[in-house]
Amino acid sequence: MTQESRPTHPMQHGHRPAASAQIPATLVPESGWHFLHVFYQVDRAVLASLSNKALSDGREQVIHALDPSARGAPQQIQSFAVVGHKADFGVMMAGPDLNAVHNVQFAIQGSALGAALKPAYSFYSITEVSEYVPDAQEYARILRDREGLDPESNVYKTKVTAYADRLEPMNHQRLYPEFPDWPCLCFYPMSKMRQGDQNWYTLPFEQRSELMSQHGRSGMKFAGKVSQLITASTGLDDWEWGVTLWARNPAYLKDIVYTMRFDESSARYALFGSFYFGYILRPDELLRTVRLSDADPDSKKLGF
After folding, report:
1. Is the dihedral of CA 191, 195, 198, 199 positive or negative?
2. Catalytic residue among 40, 124, 139, 188
3. Would residue 188 show up in a list of annotated catalytic residues for this protein?
4. What is the largest CA-CA distance in the chain?
5. Is 115 left (phi over 0), alpha (psi -120 to 50) or beta?
6. Which of 108, 32, 38 is nearest to 70 (CA)?
7. What's the pTM?
8. Which long-range contacts (CB under 8 A, 24 or more apart) does 218-225 make?
9. By 3-state DSSP, what share of the chain in percent is helix, strand and coil, each rounded to 5?
10. How confident is the prediction along the chain (304 residues), in pLDDT tens digits per residue?
11. How many other C-beta atoms lie within 10 A of the C-beta of residue 143?
């Protein structure tokens, strides 16, 4: 091989192409936040074997790890008790600093209670604004072409202006969410079908966009009852998206999921993982609820 034909930048182990130097190497997303769901089950036999000091120290350590006001805490964190046998409790956190998010997981597992807290499930994703969220111009086109509104009409102009006004705060909430202080939530992972004539990824963008628009209109019926956050996990976890729903009442979670199952984008093209339902609690309340608290002086003897 001559000098002229020899590769300038051979791709050897440990070698990075020169172009990568032009892009900052960082764990901070270009837009959006890291998002992590973790779920734990309490091993009662291990818990019963812990000393009183380990129990006391562990409770303080876990409460501190879940404290949203603690130094170094991620921007958002919520703890919740999980109903049923899939898990005993879960923690959800989000922020730009991956270490801060990940440290909550390690603080729980590294606490004096850690040996009794068995990981049940986890899901990592990043917040995003979906490609199917139309900008103001696209929304105006939808009103003209799909709904047949006259661009000169007051109804058309009012709708376009109202949408443009709320689009920025809606997208900000999608990227940098504030967790609602509502009583309950549901989390589940999902992906789109990729088999036979049910291949989402072979549909034209316009068709996918229309299907997702229909899906969004179904969800809007629950405004004020349910708050939804979709986070992206393609290439990051086993599923393509994570869906977190907060609700003012558990029945609203059932109703919205049932209603949206009839949309074609869901009925024909969606795959769902396990659903985790929980009710939100302060860290100290959570420990009492799942019997990790020393509020009951006989809890140690009972294996709680």
Report:
1. positive
2. 188
3. yes
4. 81
5. alpha
6. 108
7. 0.86
8. 218/259, 218/260, 218/262, 218/263, 219/256, 219/260, 221/259, 222/252, 222/255, 222/256, 222/259, 224/248, 225/249, 225/252, 225/256
9. 40, 25, 40
10. 444 444 444 445 555 555 556 888 999 999 999 999 999 999 999 999 999 999 999 999 999 999 999 999 999 999 999 999 999 999 999 999 999 999 999 999 999 999 999 999 999 999 999 998 878 888 888 888 888 888 889 998 888 898 888 889 999 999 999 999 999 999 999 999 999 999 999 999 999 999 998 898 899 899 999 999 999 999 999 999 999 999 999 999 999 999 999 999 999 999 999 999 999 999 999 999 999 986 543 444 334 3
11. 20
Gap between the Cα atoms of 297 and 144, Å rounded: 68
